[in-house]
Amino acid sequence: MLEITVLEIEGGRVRLGFEADTRMPIHRREVWDRICNGELNNSPVAATTARAR
User: Fold this and answer.
1) pTM, to two decimals
2) In the prediction, which pLDDT does 17 show?
3) Are 2 and 12 in contact (CB under 8 A)?
4) Helix, strand, or coil here: 25?
5) Contact 17, 7 (CB under 8 A)
């Protein structure tokens, strides 16, 4: 499960908090795009993501 919490709203900006099971990989969009494009094949990030699938 992924829980998203609004931590703060200030000056048109929103800060979010994310809480998830440690087995669930969470990546920023640009990192996920690189994983999907095969650009991070030998990285610990890609290995963690592959194990979680």
Assistant:
1) 0.50
2) 94
3) no
4) coil
5) yes
* Single-letter code of the amino acid located at 8: E
- What interhelical angle do 44-52 and 29-36 show, nearest 10? 80
Q: Is 33 helix (H, G, I), strand (E, B) or coil?
A: helix
pLDDT digits (tens, 9 = 90+) for 12-51: 999 999 999 988 888 889 998 998 998 876 665 555 555 5
- Which pLDDT score, from 0 to 100, does residue 13 have? 97
CA angle 35, 31, 40 (to 5 degrees): 40
Q: Please give the Cα distance from 45 to 7 (Å, whole number).
A: 26
- Would you state the structure tokens that stand for residue 28, as one six-digit string? 């920023």
- Amino acid, single-letter form, for residue 51: R
Which amino acid, residue 15?
R
